[in-house]
Amino acid sequence: MRGRFITFEGIDGAGKSSHIEPLAARLRSAGLTVLVTREPGGTPLAERLREVLLHAPMDALTEVLLVFAARRDHVSQVIAPALARGDTVLCDRFTDATFAYQGAGRGFDLTQLEALENWVHAEVQPDCTLWFDLSAEQAAQRLTGARAPDRFEQQSPAFFERVREGYLARAESFPQRFVRIDAAADRESVGRQVAAALEGRI
Ligand code: TMP
């Protein structure tokens, strides 16, 4: 038995995270066993690596290796066992974020990212990826005045435009699993888009 693996992606400020718990609640009331988790993070070790990734200065290769180290622990300890039990896994970011942020954003070699992906989790891939798409300018406006920005949130609008382009490239490469959500719409409309995207997939 294999459960469904749903991932949520988008640039910082796109608003994806606030739609995950409401979706989990709806799926649970429909009788599914749902696990909500996030990356970087999702295990005690990966949460410690998250703190380092978000706050310690480092070069791009160190960043990539830490992201995949955290992912390795998360996949082997949490995601793969949950899918094997038949649970539905809702994960706030996964490897598409590495292609978008480290690949498109930082300019890290995509072939090397693919090699790491195959090494770390070749057999665990999302069934569906909800991509919350918003311009870098609108996302920056939403983040203004929020808590102190971390290493990623401090990046320039140009960085986030590259990250957005990175997500677009991933969506074009994997059209069968990617669903674009218009994150510029109001909250209710975004919620309806999320529900519609998953209809027939879960
Ligand atoms: P979050 O704020 O959505 O929880 O994500 C934390 C930050 O980590 C976010 O700015 C994106 C970044 N990130 C990467 O750069 N690469 C990755 O592979 C992941 C999962 C997150």
List the helices and strands and how they pair.
Elements: E1 5-9, H1 20-29, E2 34-38, H2 44-55, H3 60-85, E3 88-92, H4 95-105, H5 110-121, E4 128-133, H6 136-143, H7 157-173, E5 178-182, H8 187-198
Parallel strand pairs: 1-3, 1-4, 2-3, 4-5
The chain binds thymidine-5'-phosphate.
List key phrases describing it.
binds thymidine-5'-phosphate, 8 helices, 202 residues, Rossmann fold
Beta content comes to: 5-15%
What is the share of helical residues?
Answer: 40-55%
Overall structural domain count: 1
| CATH class call | Alpha Beta
The radius of gyration is 16 Å
Mean pLDDT: 96
N-to-C CA distance: 14 Å
CATH H-level superfamily title: P-loop containing nucleotide triphosphate hydrolases
CATH names the topology as Rossmann fold
Largest sheet, if any?
5 strands, parallel
Anisotropy-based shape: globular
* Low-pLDDT ranges: none
